[in-house]
Specification:
This protein has 1224 residues and is of the alpha+beta class. The protein is built from 24 helices and 38 strands. α6 crosses α18.
């Protein structure tokens, strides 16, 4: 693979870099004002929160033909590698913004299987976007050849220069040979996940952030990508500019045909044995700096290792194997500080059992969602010679006993434990004369789980597909799985390095041997030697990353025996680890934290696309011009068949063609869910028989088409079906809507017997109906009256663990409908339930329904949250005597319950009918529900045409930002604001760049265009400074002479309603009515009022109505002000350099987000109008304002309860003669 991306540089008028491919170009330009502007607000935030404003850059992605690349020059003479392989992202160091590009990779790629190759990153460079002062340091090279004389970062010392590049340590880390990337496939996901994705291309949305080491640096570009149109997203992905990197180990062994177990000839490509270890970045660090677990359940040194083997089986065919296992630090909160004294440093457990258990459960829940059942293999010592390891082992076992994932519920129909535990004291087991050869005895402890977990075995087939980018056809190999891996081994020792790697080698060999046995072949000695070499190299690499040296016991891993040289080498490595832990690991940890964005003062880069962002915003606003909405009908039907086949000959029309309104007859989509479609025998639980499902497909289709013929409408076709042993989901659609349906996918998730069996679990099918995504799920959850926690756990496993293509979950859809036997029961005795049924009191039963209580009245979360269920008007659907309407009369006397349910989620769904049907050949009653669903249709041609028009319009208005036009100020490039009303003249500088003299843009305050006086006789104060946002003692308005008016006292409750500004950031294109900017109070003392809740007007005529401005300050005048809507940026309140009073300080703190709930509300000053009270000449001044307390009552409450609102009723008389201040 050769570098196909050219790096270009432009110095004037602003420094810009361009990543140019043959067809497209990505341009990045630093904003000149983003890191040099400062004001009191930013200084205050920087001092209090250790962070300032985020650096901003302008970005643009376009075709080479449309880009203006005049002034750009190649870096051929500046950098040694002027062609690059992609970018790892952007990072800031000391207010400088750097672009990281990959400029060196291994000469030979690592091939996993044909069409999937991996490259090791061997060189990166960091280019400063805002300064050229580091250009001369770009060519500081890192030694790519690892030697025994290395510095703490694994590289030869080059001497200390007077000046070093700020990113030199990051460059050393990323060039260390432990980072890998692929431009062919998603390297963060294992093979089993990839082959379940029908689309072979890379999907950026599916990247596993836990293994994506450049996630922090690449996030700004990913955010920019999310704002692009679908066409531009595809072009950016195809350009390979965005690079995803994992850290760990990746290597291959080419197996000659003489040693390959499956290859029966010399045809085609050679067989390949590969090993990929993906190190998690969630709790990354060095040996003594990263131990144990965090509160999110992430553990240190967590590594997913995948052994894969691909072999050709013919000219155009092949077969692949994959087996995954994980290692990770013991999941409790523990620390082990480094020590200068040789020997094992003291281990400290830092939290109690109760405080640790939630994070412990999170860790294994995440593992269950990713892999299924988990077998824990603990290799720590259990003797008093190592008390630290013994304490950790005892704590580990206690947490496993307490874990909700390992609880055996009463009345459970099967073993539902998710965790299996084996303590294998490695040192005790290998003490004998056989030494490490005795470690193979671990196979006896894990043999049963290894057989239950299985492995991935898939056969390849070639297909010709059409590329979406250029329309050309290409050949791809698609693997069709025969078996899949259903569980995972989790191995740990103290460091998860030496002992762990040796045991994982044995487990990998067990799985690979089982695969070969299933194919009736055996591996040769040369084959197993290559396997051992791979694992020994893997242990060395992971050990160097975590501890700074190669792995111990690698001699046995490589050769199958321990030599004297191996023992001496282990001693040297142990001493080197001791030195690194005390002197070098802290610096390595700081570099890792910087790469992952964990430093306190580190600021992420924000990317602005002035043209495209505005275009996408306009497209959303003008969506009605290219989209329309229509309503379709959906029927969802669910039935637990209890393994019966008698219903195939019965009339299913009362269930599938129910008596509903004419509008719901003949729905466009019919989803039919079955549970226990076959008898759940032990043999059936581990596999599925599609014959019974196909029989029901035919029966259902005949019923639907017969009803369609009666209605005179189009017939139905089977769109897709799926099955998980006894659960099946069938989707039928009308023939006239087939053209509107695309991207149909299916997925399953097992939950029975710790995720190994399919007697319980879910089947899901999703589709796009025009531009609306729909998802249908049928589930059969755990049985048993008291096992509601087990059912809740099954739901969470399905909801979070079931995945479609592109890592899409169930919740990532516009509309979701669940239907099935959820097995939730009614929490009453049998007698009470039947009594309620006899008298028809369904509401009383529903009040005790477990699912209803879980969703509405319990504190339990993540159980059908945000789902709706229509009102239940039918009797419990379980359990009947077969063939009758009588509830269970057997010896078990099951309590009747609504086990069969339909729930939905989606703002575009409306439930119309919800009922059961009188079919009696099962012990359940079938349930059906009908919905109306609004689907959106987008005319892509009109949208693309409008997109082009808006793009050209915006580009003509702004010029090309990447060419330096219109970028004098950061404010011009802000997005999210509407065009100014055409009735208003353009602002100053509209024809060119923004003038720096625009005082109304100072400090991110919105611009103003028109003011309205607060009343007759008022004019703007000519003595006030022209900038209304600077502190001033002068009032906004002054009153000119006018005739005095007779005194009046407004009656109680006669105030005009207060108009509060909208809280949403969205603004309409019509004229707004904002508030006057706040005037800064001075040293005059202000009257203090008791605040009302949320600073709202409490309706009292004696309290001045206040309007809350958008910037959080209080404005005294409600004026009709027309202005161009401001961009949706965080509002930054002004600060007074010298606050004059505590009230002013409180107001300022409140505007900045301080917790000032109990602080008094300080109104802005307004001079009262002096009126005559009780005298002829009006010489007497107004009486003092009485004291009042806040009531929190609404206006209506105060009008009804006019008594007792004031502290002293006698003070009311003193208010006569005061004029009520009203909004102007």
């Amino acid at each position: 693979m050769s570098a196909s991306i050219e790096l270009l540089l432009k110095e004037h008028p602003h420094r810009s870099f361009a990543l140019k491919t043959a067809t497209h170009v990505l341009i990045l330009q630093h904003h000149p004002t983003s890191s040099h502007t400062s004001n009191e607000y930013t200084e205050f935030i920087s001092n209090t929160q250790n962070e300032g404003p985020a650096p901003r850059c302008i970005v643009r992605f376009t075709t080479v033909q449309e880009a203006d690349l005049r002034g750009y020059k190649s870096l051929r003479g500046v950098a040694l590698n002027w062609k690059v392989f992609g970018t790892l992202g952007l990072i800031t160091i000391d207010d400088d913004v750097f672009l990281c590009v990959v400029n060196g990779v291994a000469a030979r790629g690592i091939v996993i299987r044909p069409g999937e190759s991996v490259r090791r990153i061997e060189g990166v460079d960091f280019y400063c976007l805002n300064s050229s002062q580091y250009d001369r340091l770009l060519n500081e090279q890192v030694n790519p050849y690892r030697t025994d004389h290395i510095d703490e970062h694994g590289f030869d010392e080059r001497g200390e220069g007077l000046e070093v590049h700020p990113c030199l340590e990051l460059k050393k880390l990323l060039s260390s040979g432990t980072f890998y990337y692929s431009s062919d496939f998603d390297l963060t996901r294992r093979l089993q996940k990839r082959i379940q994705d029908d689309k072979p291309t890379i999907s950026i949305e599916s990247f596993d952030a836990g293994f994506l080491w450049n996630s922090y640096m690449i996030q700004p570009i990913m955010d920019f990508r999310s704002r692009l149109s679908n066409r531009e997203k595809d072009a950016l992905d195809a350009s390979n500019i965005i690079t995803s990197a994992i850290r760990g180990f990746c290597a291959e062994m080419i197996i000659p045909s003489s040693s390959s177990p499956l290859q029966r000839g010399t045809y085609g490509e050679p067989a390949r044995l590969t090993l990929i270890s993906r190190l998690s970045c969630r709790r990354a660090g060095t040996r003594f700096n990263a131990r144990g677990m965090d509160d999110e359940g992430n553990v240190a040194n967590y590594v997913e290792t995948e052994t894969s083997f691909w072999s050709p089986t013919g000219e155009d065919s092949g077969q692949c194997f994959s087996f995954v296992q994980v290692r990770g630090s013991l999941p409790v909160f523990w620390e082990q500080p480094s020590s200068l004294i040789p020997g094992q440093p003291k281990i400290t457990i830092t939290r109690s059992i109760e405080a640790t258990q939630p994070a412990f459960d999170k860790h294994f829940l995440n593992m269950d969602h990713s892999y299924g059942a988990v077998h824990i293999l603990n290799l720590l010592a259990d003797d008093r010679n190592k008390p630290g390891e013994m304490d950790l082992t005892q704590r580990y076992e206690e947490h496993i006993r307490r874990s909700v994932l390992n609880t055996e519920e009463k009345d459970a129909e099967s073993d539902h434990r998710l965790l299996k535990y084996t303590h294998y004291d490695f040192h005790a087991e290998t003490k004998g004369p056989g030494r490490y050869e005795a470690a193979r005895g671990v196979e006896d402890y894990i043999h049963a789980s290894a057989g239950a977990f299985g492995f991935l075995s898939a056969k390849d087939k070639e297909e010709h597909i059409k590329a979406s980018s250029n329309g050309e056809y290409k050949i791809i190999r698609r693997a069709v799985p025969d078996t899949t891996q259903e569980g995972v081994f989790r191995t740990n020792c103290l460091d998860c390095l030496d002992r762990t790697n040796l045991i994982q080698t044995i487990i990998s060999q067990m799985a690979l041997r089982s695969f070969l046995d299933a194919e009736n072949v055996r591996g040769t000695a040369d084959f197993w030697a290559r396997h051992g070499t791979l694992w020994a190299d893997n242990g060395d690499y992971l050990s160097k990353i975590y501890a700074g040296t190669g792995a111990l016991k690698s001699s046995f891993t490589r050769h199958g025996k321990m030599s004297l040289g191996g023992l001496l080498s282990d001693g040297v490595k142990s001493m080197t680890r001791h030195i690194n832990g005390n002197f070098n690991d802290k610096g390595r940890q700081d570099t890792i934290d910087m790469l992952l964005g964990r430093n306190m003062k580190q600021k992420a880069v924000h990317l602005d696309d002035p043209i495209n962002d505005w275009v996408q915003m306009e497209l959303r606003r003008r969506a009605p011009e290219y989209s329309s909405t229509e309503t379709i009908n959906i029927l969802i039907a669910t039935f637990n068949l209890n393994g019966k086949t008698r219903g195939l000959q019965e009339d299913l029309s009362p269930w599938l063609c129910p008596p509903v309104g004419r509008e719901q007859r003949g729905p466009e989509i019919v989803a039919v869910a079955f549970q226990e479609i076959v008898e759940l025998s032990p043999q059936q639980m581990m596999k599925e028989d599609p014959y019974r499902r196909k029989e029901w497909e035919t029966a259902v289709k005949n019923i639907l088409n017969a009803d369609a013929a009666n209605l005179g409408s189009e017939g139905y076709v089977l769109l897709r079906s799926g099955q998980l042993v006894g659960a099946a989901l069938l989707i039928f659609v009308k023939t006239n809507v087939l053209g509107a349906i695309k991207n149909v996918e299916g997925a399953i998730k097992k939950t029975g017997i710790s995720g190994l069996a399919g007697n319980k679990g879910a089947v899901a099918i999703r589709m796009d109906f025009d531009n609306t995504s729909l998802c249908f799920v049928t589930a059969h959850l755990a049985a048993g009256f008291a096992n509601y926690e087990e059912r809740n756990r099954d739901y969470r496993t399905i909801s979070q663990g079931l995945r479609f293509q592109r890592n899409r979950t169930i919740d990532n859809h516009d509309s979701v409908i669940w239907a099935g036997d959820f097995n939730y029961r009614i929490g009453l005795s049998n007698e009470k339930v039947r009594t309620f049924i006899d008298r028809g009191d369904l509401d009383g039963l529903l009040e005790n329904d477990q699912l209803y209580l879980m969703r509405t009245r319990s504190g339990i979360r993540d159980v059908f949250d945000h789902y709706d269920e229509a009102k239940i008007t039918f009797l419990p659907t379980y359990k009947y005597d077969v063939g009758t309407d009588t509830y269970d009369t057997s010896e078990k006397a099951r309590i009747p319950a609504w086990t069969d349910r339909v729930l939905s989620k989606g703002n575009n769904l409306r439930s119309i009918n919800y009922n059961c049907a009188p079919l009696r050949f099962s012990d359940h009653r079938p349930v059906y529900a009908t919905f109306e669903c609004d689907v959106q249709t987008v005319d892509e041609k009109i949208r693309e045409r409008l997109n082009g028009e808006l793009y050209r319009k915006r580009k003509a208005a702004l010029g090309d930002p990447s060419a330096g036009v219109g970028v004098e100020s950061s404010d011009e490039d802000l997005l999210g604001y509407e065009d100014a009303d055409e009735r208003w003249p353009p602002g100053a500088g509209a024809s060119g760049g923004v003038e720096r003299g625009r005082w109304w843009l100072d400090r991110d305050m919105p611009a103003q265009s028109t003011l309205k006086a607060p009343g007759n006789g008022y004019i703007p104060n000519p003595n006030r400074p022209p900038n209304p946002f600077v502190p001033s003692d002068e009032p906004d308005w002054i009153k000119v002479d006018r005739p005095s008016r007779p005194p009046s006292v407004a009656p109680r409750g006669s105030n005009k309603p207060v108009i509060l500004p909208p809280t949403s950031s969205k603004r309409d294109s019509e004229d707004l009515v904002p508030q006057l900017p706040p005037r800064r109070p001075t040293n005059q003392s202000l009257p203090t009022q008791t605040p009302t809740p949320n600073n709202q007007y409490d309706g009292s005529p004696y309290t001045r109505p206040q309007s809350i401005a958008r910037n959080g300050s209080i404005s005294s005048v409600t004026s009709s002000i027309h202005r161009k809507p401001a961009p949706p940026k965080p509002k930054k309140p002004m600060l007074l350099s010298q606050p004059s009073s505590p009230n002013v300080v409180d107001e300022r703190r409140s505007s900045m987000g301080f917790n000032a709930v109990n602080a008094p509300v300080v109104p802005t000053m307004r001079k009262p109008i002096a009126l005559s009270v009780g005298t002829k000449n009006g010489s007497a001044g107004p009486p003092p304002l009485p004291r009042r307390t806040g009531t929190g009552l609404s206006f209506e409450d105060q009008r009804k309860q006019s008594e007792g609102l004031m502290d002293d009723d006698g003070d009311v008389d003193g208010l006569r003669g005061w004029e009520v201040l009203k909004p102007g």
